[in-house]
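Today's session is about reading a structure prediction critically. Students often jump straight to the picture, but the first step is always the sequence itself: look for stretches that repeat, for charged clusters, for runs of hydrophobic residues. Only then move on to the predicted structure, which in these notes is written as discrete structure tokens rather than atom positions. Here is the chain we will use throughout the hour.
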Amino acid sequence: MVALRLSLLLISFITTVRANPVFRNLVVHEARQGIPSGFLSKGPAAADTQLNLRIALVQSDTAGLEAALLDVSNPSSANYGNHLSMDEVETFVRPSVDTVAKVNDWLATNGLQSTTSSPAGDWLSVSMPVKQANELLRADFTVFAHHETGKQAIRTLSYSIPIVLKDTWISSIRPLRTFPNPRKILPVFSSPINSVSNTAVPSSCASVVTPACLQALYGIPTTKATQSSNALGVSGFLNQFANQADLTTFLKNLRPDISSTTTFTLQTLDGGRNPQSPKQAGIEANLDIQYTVGVASGVPVTFISVGDDFQDGNLEGFLDIINFLLGEPNPPQVLTTSYGQDERTISSILAKKVCNAYAQLGARGVSILFASGDGGVSGSQTQSCTTFVPTFPSGCPFMTSVGATTGITPETAADFSSGGFSNIFSRPDYQITAVSTYLIALGGTNLGKFNRTGRGFPDVATQGENVEVVLGGQTETVAGTSCSSPIFASIISLINDQLFASGKSPLGFLNPFLYANPGAFNDITSGNNPGCNTNGFPAKAGWDPVTGLGTPNFDKLKKAAGL
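Below is the predicted structure for this chain, in token form.
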């Protein structure tokens, strides 16, 4: 009986394959020329190694989503602030019934079954051994190792799919040819300092930056927010944990006007957690929490901890956290992230899929902010290069990239502030005038080292050097654009609080609003961001690829928001 059952299953499988000859004609879908810099081939991946792949299905109306996003985000639009609901957004991205059926038919033909891995159903997950993946995708899965860090990954330099599925049905499969990024954006330790008193005068800000300094520099109010429905989300990755005891010490020292018991809520995904042992306190997580709770006075703050069980390959939870928030009926109105990677480590197709996910959240009224990076024009961190290295996701036009400044009289560009022009994303309409003006003033400087037609970043900047934090009960100073993003996010959250109190919508996707109001920023006109054996880009009047539009003036931003 067992033998008969196996025979029937085999006959059924052969019949299915013969019934679908259309899937036999394969065509290369994605390919890259050579191994990325810093990686070495260690030989073929073991045939029985299990691969967890995710298939991006073609969305129903990407252009419609982008148009809707800009319509509700452009201050000159009649629909400004009329953000979309979850269902309205999903209407644009949900794949057609035929798309889902065709892709699942292909998988079933090969004995595979998928599961849906995104709220709108535009991502499918499927697992298979290396041997089957090599055959199914006409690939050559290989073990690659980064020679500096030793980090290994199984990847293929090209893969193919049935020609009938290309473009119309499947957008991409990952993480096949996208390599992991060995460099992460993390703050840089400076040196231990004696804590600054809360009565410190602004002149002290030249050597140590505290919440009081930021309030004085940017006009940030000290009065507490009042709207409980307004929320600020802080992304946590790489087992960086936010410590409550350190936050209490920070508030006692630097914000004694608000309760030292003020806390934050926790959300987790991909096995995330937030242990409270002093030894497990993370410098990045502490920085982000202390400068959101400590600057966005009274705004509810949520720490979103992404664990190591991420399902998005080398993105290491970047897409998972967005899909997680897209599945929530009420995501936070602001999300700040102080991590990133070099743009060249991610395929253009995948970069656009992630960027599109930011557009989905933006259309629902969420402001997404990222640190621009700490390597000047050489990328997320300082490295050898001959042409400038843009960072990801700063090149995405549907998020706000935050660079760094230093000093107070006047502020100047921090030399580590990553900035430049994307090699994947073209320049969006909202910044054409500002960027074109800069390029004319730049002339032939750095000619051939960057993409003059790409999306320029960062968009804005705040202080990013000598920033005081508490770690394991000890006071330290840190530097990096990791400091800048949570500071700017706090300012936007405070403006959102006043908008809610006035019965208005939150700012949502920020960039069209920001570029429409350049006068709301303190223009930074000195400094540069060296790298790749050059002086990088110089800061100039107006927007520049070091500090963006400049640093915020709270009162002017509030007025621009109609308050």
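Discussion point for the tutorial: The mean pLDDT is 91.
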